[in-house]
Amino acid sequence: MNAEPIKPSRYQSDSGALAKVAALLLGLLVAVLMLFVVLMWVDARTEQKAVASPAAPSAPAPAHAHNTALPIESFAGVVPANAQELAAAHKPYDATLPPLQAGDVAKIRMVMKDQTLEIAPGVKYNVWSFDTAPGPVVHVRQGQTVEFTLVNGGKIPHSMDFHAARIAPNKAFRDVMPGESFTFRFKANDPGVFMYHCGTKPVLAHIANGMYGAIVVSPTDMPAADNEYVLVASEWYMNGDGITEPASLDMAKAHRMEPDWTTFNGYANQYVTHPLTAKPGETTRFWVVAAGPTLDTNFHVVGTVFNRAWVNGDMSRFQRGVQTVGVPAGGGAVFDVKIDDEGLYPFVSHAFAHVDLGQVGLLKVGDPEGTMSH
Ligand SMILES: [Cu+2]
């Protein structure tokens, strides 16, 4: 029975000790907080001094390649004063679907080249390319064998990845060393329009630098079209305006998906100045690939509705009466429009930032008044 009165006194003495410990901890916390306040005050004083320094505004920003939070300078829309003349003088990438090769085997040879190309009027860029950027349009028949040779005329390894192929990529899409060439074959059994690109790491850089294009595998059965055009949508990320000297890739912009220019077939607005053509009542077919490297294209033709849209490049069926179709980066789709009335019909990515950045062209139907042919 002695144990009972002892318990409360033990509790009392325990809680007294706890209170002392708590007070000690609280004191320590206050001391630490005060130290923080002093440190922050010193930090703020240092920053104020840096801002007040007269040399600060004109001094170049320090380079911190690892710091992606730094502001990025955009060169969107920056062209020289004579841009209109230059746009008129530019020879547009030929969007016309090239003819098929006869026989069971289509032989394709591309020479990889480092070169400087214009990507907008007066704007130059140091590309890595399959001959051109985009590379040449490859057109084969469903069931035809493609015999492809890549000649690497560049300074670093490159490779070729055909989305139309069912083939072991570690063998066929392997790196080809500078000065070497490599040939592989595949049978193009899947019809549609497919992207091809360099698959060498970092793939983002190789595609962003221009190593992409379209391969059209024409199905054996498809409604006839009067005009057939191939459009490869892509974007450019530049480390300078490309006017005073050619620009190169800005990898930070590419990671942040903030392009300076977006294009159809590699050059901003080229089919606005040099429209694609059709006659009234004709059916015009667009084979569209979104090469990216990262952004999709939302294909739309202003002033009409797609008579047929083979969405996602599924050639087994088409949709009718569709207005806009998303073409994912790395994907393709096919569109027919039959336009009866003369006029200028813009084709765009209807994600409208793309239009401002250059991904727009015109389909000139007939010879509408007030337009120049070229
Ligand atoms: Cu490459």
Structural notes for this entry:
By secondary structure, the chain is an alpha+beta fold. It has a single domain (83-95, 104-365), classed as Immunoglobulin-like (Sandwich). Helix content is 22%, strand content 32%. It contains seven helices and 18 strands. The chain has helices at 3-52, 83-89, 169-172, 203-208, 251-256, 270-273, 353-357, and strands spanning 105-120, 123-130, 138-141, 145-152, 161-162, 181-187, 192-197, 212-218, 227-236, 261-264, 276-278, 283-292, 297-301, 308-310, 324-327, 331-338, 343-349, 360-365. The strands form four sheets. The chain has a five-stranded mixed β-sheet. Strands 11-18-17-13-15 form a five-stranded mixed β-sheet.
In brief:
This protein has 374 residues and is an alpha+beta fold.
Can you lay out the helices and strands and say which pair or pack?
Elements: H1 3-52, H2 83-89, E1 105-120, E2 123-130, E3 138-141, E4 145-152, E5 161-162, H3 169-172, E6 181-187, E7 192-197, H4 203-208, E8 212-218, E9 227-236, H5 251-256, E10 261-264, H6 270-273, E11 276-278, E12 283-292, E13 297-301, E14 308-310, E15 324-327, E16 331-338, E17 343-349, H7 353-357, E18 360-365
Copper (II) ion binds next to loops.
